[in-house]
Amino acid sequence: MTTVTKESTFVCSDCGKEKDIPEDSITTGYGIDNEGKKVCFACCGLRDRKTMVDEGRIALYLTKKPDGWFVTNWPGTLSFRVTSHRIGSHNIAGTRDDVWFTGPDDKPWWGVCIGSNTQITRCRRIKG
Predict the structure, then answer these.
(1) How far is Cα 98 from Cα 80, in angstroms, rounded to an integer?
(2) First vs last C-alpha separation in the chain
(3) Predicted model pTM
(4) Which of 43, 64, 70, 73 is most exposed by smallest CB count within 10 Å?
């Protein structure tokens, strides 16, 4: 019988720091990029910020917190407060959430989350 041991640390490929993986956590503490390299959650936020500034579009997650609506990256290390939120209808999914927020480039952004069974919000910088 093969015994599988859980890793207790990893080295982030971006910042080069050794990071602990919490034993009682349901998550790994890192993301894996397209090249299979491990990236700590803090560096995931930096990468997502750079993607937003450079490309003008990204998929984020729409979340409701006690102090309002936010769009965040998956680990929650990049977050923007929603300044305007409108719920409408969608011909297939039933509902559609449109959100507006100020992005990392201090420019207006818009996002759309389609359906009530998802948080995935496709966001883009508003031209203008």
Answers:
(1) 14
(2) 62
(3) 0.85
(4) 64
Residue scoring higher pLDDT (2 or 71): 71
- What is the DSSP annotation of 69-118? EEEE-TTSSSEEEEEEEEEEEETTTEEEEEEEEE-TTSSEEEEEEESSS-
Which ranges in 7-92 belong to alpha helices (H)? Answer: 41-55
- What pLDDT is recorded for position 18? 94
* Burial of 54 per CB tally in 10 Å (0-12, 13-18, 19+): exposed
Give every CB contact of residue 60 below 8 A, 6+ residues apart in sequence.
Answer: 48, 71, 72, 73, 78, 80, 111, 120, 121, 123
Amino acid at 104: P
Of 84, 85, 124, nearest in space to 107 by CA = 124
Tell me which residue of 57, 59, 61, 54 sits closest to 76, measured CA to CA: 61
